[in-house]
Amino acid sequence: MRAQGGGSAWQTRLLEIGNGDANDSDDRVSVPNTMISVIDIVTEIFGSVIDPSSTSQLCEWAIIAPKNIHVNHLNERAVDRLQVVNPEDERLYRSIDEVIYLEGLPE
């Protein structure tokens, strides 16, 4: 997802960071205190328990992180907060996000 031009100061700052315009001469970015969470960010965004039936509300929230490893960590913490209404309905879906090439097999 990419923030579009215009909008709030937060959006503008996010675009500056994404475009590299917010970097100083050493390629560092200063983050204003208003953008820093002093409590657990997952709790701040989603609350202590996430109700899976509130999908319309969940679609409007996002936590942005610079690298996939950070996103994966935050996702794990958010999923741990999902309230399971009926344990029989719980399912685990696995996926693969990289290709493994084996020697001797066509690519």
Account of the 3D structure:
It comes from Haemonchus contortus (Barber pole worm). This is ATP-dependent DNA helicase. The chain is flat, with a radius of gyration of 19 Å. With 107 residues, the chain is mainly α. The mean pLDDT is 78. 2% of the residues are buried. The longest helix is centred in the last third of the chain and has 13 residues. It is built from four helices and no strands. It folds into two domains: 34 residues, no CATH class; 48 residues, no CATH class. Helices cover 32% and strands 0% of the residues.
Tally of contiguous helical segments: 4
The main pleated sheet reads as:
none
Write down how many β-strands occur, each being a DSSP E stretch of 2 or more residues.
0
Low-confidence parts, pLDDT < 50 over ≥5 residues? none
H/E element order: HHHH
Radius of gyration: 19 Å
Strand portion: under 5%
Structural class: mainly alpha
Large-scale geometry = flat
Number of domains: 2
Q: What is the distance, rounded to the nearest whole angstrom, between the alpha carbons of the first and last residues?
A: 31 Å
Assign a percent range to the helix content: 25-40%
> How confident is the prediction overall: mean pLDDT?
78
Protein name: ATP-dependent DNA helicase
